[in-house]
Amino acid sequence: MRHIISILMENESGALSRVAGLFSARGYNIESLTVAATEDSSLSRMTLVTSGSDDVIEQITKQLNKLIDVVKLIDLAESAHIERELMMIKVKTTEKTRAEVKSMADVFRGRILDFTPETYVIEVTGPSEKLDAFIAALDADSIIEVVRSGATGISRGEKGLHL
User: Fold this and answer.
1) In 3-state terms, what secondary structure has residue 17?
2) Rounded to whole angstroms, how far apart are CA atoms 127 and 125?
3) Backbone angles phi, psi at 81, to 5 degrees
4) pTM of the entire structure?
5) Where are the alpha helices (DSSP H) in 1-93?
6) Residue 31 DSSP code
7) What share of the chain in percent tops pLDDT 90?
8) Going by C-beta distance under 8 Å and a sequence separation of 6 or more, which residues neighbour residue 114?
9) If you count DSSP H runs as helices and E runs as strands, how many of each does the chain have, helices first?
10) pLDDT given at position 52
11) Mean pLDDT (the chain, rounded)
């Protein structure tokens, strides 16, 4: 099962390396990873996506909690949450296909960030499945480049990851 683990950690050099090292040493895979400072400049929030059985995820969270840099963590898959991913995709266009590609972006609530006579760069945000569907809806030969952030998420309601 896929899990999104959100970690509040000390904003210090080497912290990311220690988390990645924990995963690689145990043979666990990180599917995506995002890190950024929080409203408190001494703390960062790391969101990582991984897959595994409940036992494997429990082992991962126990090992993460032992790291000195980790202040608090939460497995978002355990409760109601909102998750989003950002994708930017560069697509070849022609005079004939421009309207169709723009219409497709509009259907998926995408935004055209940049255009040239031959290309569009489109931003799409949403659940990973939505981004996958947008890619599938395009002509595969028209796709030049795809950049995805990986999933990030936040708990719904009053529950949250804070001190």
Assistant:
1) helix
2) 7
3) -150, 165
4) 0.82
5) 15-25, 54-66
6) S
7) 59
8) 120, 121
9) 4, 9
10) 84
11) 91
